[in-house]
Design goal:
alpha/beta; seven-stranded parallel beta sheet; 10 helices; two-stranded antiparallel ribbon; 17% strand; globular; 315 residues
C-alpha cells in the first residue's frame, strides 16, 4: 500500500490548515455560506424506552434522549423561529437545517412523521433537514418517506450505532444489532440517502483496538458522515447509578491520541460532524474536562499538525 506523505489540507478559509473534512466545510461549499443546524425535539420516544424492545433507554442516554440542547415546545415552527431569532444577529445571512435530534425521530407512524418533517421544511428559512434515529427504526413506509424528502431537499439520516461490538451493545441496553445497522445502511444508500453514523469512544469494556475496529467497520460502507466523541457520564442516565465512578478518558491528551488514530482511518470523502462531545456542565459528571470543547478541538488540530497527519492518512 502506498501511503501519501504530503498532508491533505481540507480547508484554510478560517486561517487554520484543517486536516479533517468537517461538515462545516462541506456545507459552506454546498450552500455558499454559513449553515446552522437548529436542534428540535419532535416529541418522539424510543423502542427501548416504551417497552416494545426494552425499558429505560440506552444506559448512557440522558432523560432528554441526548437532545439536551433541543427545542421541544410542541410547535415546530415556533421552535425554529425562536432559535433563528437568537442566532440571526451572529449570523445574519446564515441558512438553516432543521435537525430532529432527541430520541428516535423515525419511531412513529409515517403520517405523523410526514406532518412534522414537512412543517419544518416549509419554514421559509430552512434549507434542509437532518434526522437522527436508530438502526432498527426505519420500516419500509418510513424509508419511502425519507426517499421522498431526499428528492425534494437536502437530507441526511443519522444512525446511532455507537459500537460494532454486540457485547457492548447488550451491556448498554441498545436493543439492536450490528446486522440491523448494516442492513439499514444498505437500504438507505440504495435510495441515495446520505448516512451519518454515530460512534461513542470509551464505552465501558472497550479497549483501543475495539474502538478502532468500529471506525473501520462503519467506513467500509460509503457513508456520508461520521460523528465521533468521548463517552460522557451524565446525570439522569442509568449509568449514573450503575457506573457512578466511570471515566472514559482521564485526560484530554489520552482522548486526543485515540481520536487522531481513529481519524487517520476515515476516508477523506467522509464528512466529520463531530470529533468531541460537550454535555451541559449542569449534567456532566465525567470526564470533568469534556465541556471544554474549544480547548479539545484546538488540541486535536495542533496535535495533527505536530504529527504531520490528516484524515485518511492510513486509508
Amino acid at each position: 500500500m502506498k501511503i501519501q506523505k504530503t498532508p491533505h489540507i481540507f480547508d484554510t478559509s478560517d486561517g487554520q490548515e484543517l486536516r479533517i473534512n468537517t461538515i462545516n466545510t462541506y456545507l459552506k461549499k454546498e450552500f455558499g455560506g454559513k449553515v446552522v443546524k437548529l436542534s428540535l425535539d419532535g416529541g418522539f420516544t424510543c423502542p427501548n424506552r416504551d417497552g416494545s424492545k426494552g425499558v429505560g433507554g440506552c444506559l448512557f442516554c440522558s432523560a432528554s434522549g441526548s437532545g439536551d440542547m433541543a427545542a421541544g415546545s410542541g410547535d415546530i415552527v415556533a421552535d425554529l423561529d425562536a432559535q433563528i431569532s437568537l442566532l440571526s444577529d451572529k449570523w445574519p445571512d446564515a441558512k438553516y437545517l432543521a435537525y430532529f435530534q432527541s430520541h428516535t425521530n423515525t419511531y412513529a407512524p409515517a403520517d405523523e412523521l410526514r406532518s412534522k418533517f414537512y412543517a419544518a421544511l416549509e419554514h421559509p428559512q430552512v434549507s434542509g433537514i437532518a434526522i437522527a434515529t436508530r438502526p432498527d427504526s426505519i420500516p419500509d413506509d418510513v424509508l419511502d418517506l425519507l426517499s421522498e424528502l431526499n428528492e425534494k431537499t437536502f437530507l441526511w439520516v443519522e444512525l446511532g450505532l455507537q459500537t460494532m461490538h454486540q457485547d457492548t451493545m447488550d451491556a448498554m441496553n441498545l436493543c439492536y444489532t450490528l446486522e440491523e445497522y448494516d442492513d439499514t445502511v444498505s437500504r438507505l444508500l440504495d435510495k441515495g440517502i446520505k448516512v451519518v453514523t454515530h460512534l461513542i469512544l470509551g464505552l465501558p469494556g472497550e479497549d483501543r483496538q475495539m474502538m478502532l475496529d468500529s471506525v473501520k467497520h462503519v467506513c467500509s460502507s460509503p457513508i456520508f458522515g461520521l460523528k465521533l466523541h468521548m463517552f460522557n457520564l451524565v446525570k439522569g442516565s442509568q449509568m449514573e447509578l450503575t457506573h457512578p465512578d466511570y471515566v472514559s478518558f482521564k485526560t484530554i491528551e489520552e482522548y486526543v491520541d485515540l481520536l487522531i488514530s481513529a481519524v487517520e482511518l476515515v476516508p477523506p470523502s467522509v464528512t466529520l460532524h463531530r470529533i468531541s462531545g460537550d454535555a451541559p456542565r449542569s449534567t456532566l459528571i465525567a470526564p470533568e474536562w469534556s465541556y471544554m470543547k474549544r480547548t479539545i478541538l484546538n488540541t486535536i488540530h495542533k496535535e495533527m499538525r505536530d504529527r504531520n497527519t490528516w484524515q485518511g492518512r492510513l486509508v
